[in-house]
Amino acid sequence: IDRSRIVESSIGALIGQSEESCRSRHFEVNFLGEEGTGTGPQREYFAVASKKFVCEDYGLFGLSSGTRVYHPLAGDFGMFAFGRLLGLAIRHQSLVDVKFSRAFLRMIVGGKLELEMLEEIEPDLYRNLCALKGHQDHEAMDLDFTILTDYQPSKQKVELMENGENIKVDSTNIEKYVELYILYKLRDGAKKLMDRLLHGFFEVVPKPAIRIFSDQELDLLLCGLPKIDVDDWRRCQGEQLCETSQLSLWFWEFVCSKEEAERALLLKFCTGSSVSPSVGFENLPGLSSICRFTLACTQEAGDDRLPTASTCFNLLKIPDYSSKEILEERFHVALHYGSEGFSF
């Protein structure tokens, strides 16, 4: 995978695989020009690629300004490949770095959409539509059963029901109008897009296997826990290799002092993924099985050395620093200039 063109490179790699190979137990990611192999690059790939796929440059998803969740738009560039990517992430127990709308997740598991789901995606529109139902004079608003799409490159008028352009909204059908309007926003406006995504997704994960889950459970499978539980992280360490207990204490004090964004960078540096596993740190996946996070003290002393990590083994190696301040400074450099990629 070419990191500098990760979406285009991913599309070529993902659509070039047969359905049989996508369901294979073997899956490996290698970044062009980088030495890393194994589960570390794999976990980082799913996090980085998923985030790039949903950015506005590709027109696949829109980001809600309020709740900061992603929901499909009407673009189709690479949607089949993105469906395969999401399926592969689940199949190989990796997490994506995207927060999807409940409506999107509900469509994957095949559940019924609820009108209230629009509030998460377009809160102002949802409130306006609810207020519209309480309006006294619907005829004066001169509405019909059509919607003007806001998708590029051009706006189009779409009928919400057969002959909708000739059906005026009044007090007898306002409830139906609002329902169809919301369903168009949640589902029908992006139907072709979702069909392509689901085609790719179900080629990797069979439909019966995923439809036993709720949308909340799928959210955990794809995205992990919303916050990093430092207590759980520390409690679920593997064998403690650090001979200097003071160094271990400084490290966990450093972790506790950081905001969520910094903790995510640190977790990514150590494991390849910036998101907490949905099953907790006790079940942190490694190269071929569960591999708990381990803190190790390198034999070399030296305040000028940076911490390093073996992400396939969730192993963090810290030089024997002389003070907590030095530890914090060196981690700052490592996290902000070496948390992505596998060649420092």
UniProtKB/TrEMBL annotation:
Residues 18-344 form the HECT domain. Its EC number is 2.3.2.26. GO terms for molecular function: ubiquitin protein ligase activity. PROSITE patterns: HECT. SUPFAM superfamilies: Hect, E3 ligase catalytic domain. Coiled coil: none annotated. Pathway: Protein modification; protein ubiquitination. It catalyses: S-ubiquitinyl-[E2 ubiquitin-conjugating enzyme]-L-cysteine + [acceptor protein]-L-lysine = [E2 ubiquitin-conjugating enzyme]-L-cysteine + N(6)-ubiquitinyl-[acceptor protein]-L-lysine. InterPro entries: E3_ubiq-protein_ligase, HECT_dom, Hect_E3_ubiquitin_ligase. Pfam families: HECT. Keywords: Transferase, Ubl conjugation pathway. It is an enzyme of class 2 (transferase). Signal peptide: none annotated. The active site is at C312 (glycyl thioester intermediate). SMART domains: HECTc. This is HECT-type E3 ubiquitin transferase.
